[in-house]
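Protein Record: Sequence and Backbone Structure Tokens
======================================================

Structure line: whole-number tokens from a learned vocabulary of local backbone shapes, matched to residues.

Purpose: to set a sequence beside its fold so the mapping can be learned.

___
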Amino acid sequence: MAFLKGDFEFTGSMGNVTGYKLPGIKDTVIRTKGGASKKKIYKADNFKLTRQNFTEFSGCGKMGGAIRRSMLPMVPMADYNFTPVLNSFSKTIQLLDSESLRGERNIYLSRHKHLLNGFSLNRNIAFESIIRHPLKARIDAHAGKADVQLPELMPGVNLVLNRQAPMFRFVINLGSVADALYTSRGYLIENIEGCCTYSGWYHATQLFSATELSVELNNFSAQPDRTLILSLGIQMGTPITDAVINPLKYGGCAKIIAIG
């Protein structure tokens, strides 16, 4: 590893040299290009393990992306890119398949779905630090519907908002994700579904009365290889007019609260 110092700075490629930055290192790191050719990686016997790793990682990427797409309405409440974390989670599930050959291991989310419960879309603030009261959630896995019972919330007591905006609302989302199975065409995940429900807007200083929010997937058909993912978010907003509230991007927080 070499370091570039002085007034001449660059990142990217220049001829046979690549410059890039690394966390915690002030200077630019440089290296020469090299390594095996693409043809060698895809054909040579000594790169068989590498090819197997590539194939399995593609399945993890598809599963991580499927979980994310099933809960798209919650993304605006995330404060970091959580997709790579879901990919890593998918790899954990994939390694639990002891029946398939390496390079063809399936991702049986339905068998280990409990591991996904409690997944947070936030790093800077915990959902429990805002809603300081136990929540009741129920999933009907046969009907493809769920409900969340929200308790009475008193600002400053069991509702502690971070004052990002004067308004807030609740968002619940129910997603359906199938297992990622290896086939001759690679990893396939079929029929990713998701549906959400928004509460009305509430002022951050007013008492929130207990209520129940429900969500139901359209034309749902229960299958043993499907996992239902129920997530709940609290989204902040700023008023544009008396009747129109603008949701604050990256304002609020969300997490997975139940799995079915």
About this structure: The helical segments are 38-43, 48-70, 83-94, 127-130.
